[in-house]
Amino acid sequence: MTTDQNLMLYTKLAGFRLVVLANRFGCDSEFRRDLHDRLVEGLEAAIGRVRIIMSLERSVFAGEDEFAEHQLEGETEIFGRITINLRDDLEIDFDTHEYRINGDDWAIALTADNTGVDIDYPELIALTDDELGSLAPIIKEITSETGIAVNASRACYIRCGGS
């Protein structure tokens, strides 16, 4: 990306942050306020990354730092993989049959008894537009305008039937 593109992205992210903060005032539940807070944190992290990228670009253009070009390449790659998680993040290790939710301790999904072996991983189930409320269109616009994925899902076993 060019400096102009990064500046435009920075401006969009900062604008979305303000929109989410303003929208938070209309929340009618702690759950929705928490979703707004997590989205603001994610946007602030993305803004921080863009600021680092712009600073490294200045260093590269000025020739101040011989390693800045490599750092810039790495930061740009990291930024390209940013995902904002509003609720749950699920990691699965299929080799060990373990999983963890939101970085907590690993749990074993493998059970065995005299009837056989059962492997039961939770799945991520997307929050509905009703659950997201007024945040739903904002999330869609953030992804559309910035390319940053926003994950609004909860970890659940299929048998749980919802929340």
Topology:
Elements: H1 3-24, H2 30-62, H3 68-80, E1 83-85, E2 90-93, E3 98-101, E4 107-108, E5 110-113, E6 116-119, E7 123-126, H4 129-132, H5 135-146, E8 149-151, E9 153-156
Parallel strand pairs: 1-8
Antiparallel strand pairs: 2-3, 3-4, 5-6, 7-9
Helix pairs in contact: 1-2, 1-5, 2-3
Please describe what this structure looks like:
The strands form four sheets. Strands 2-3-4 form a three-stranded antiparallel sheet, with no helix packed on it. It has a two-stranded parallel ribbon with strand order 1-8. Strands 5-6 form a two-stranded antiparallel ribbon. The mean pLDDT is 90. It has five helices and nine strands. The longest helix has 33 residues, at 30-62. It has helices at 3-24, 30-62, 68-80, 129-132, 135-146, and strands at 83-85, 90-93, 98-101, 107-108, 110-113, 116-119, 123-126, 149-151, 153-156. With 163 residues, the chain is of the alpha+beta class. Strand 3 (98-101) and strand 4 form a beta hairpin. It has one domain.
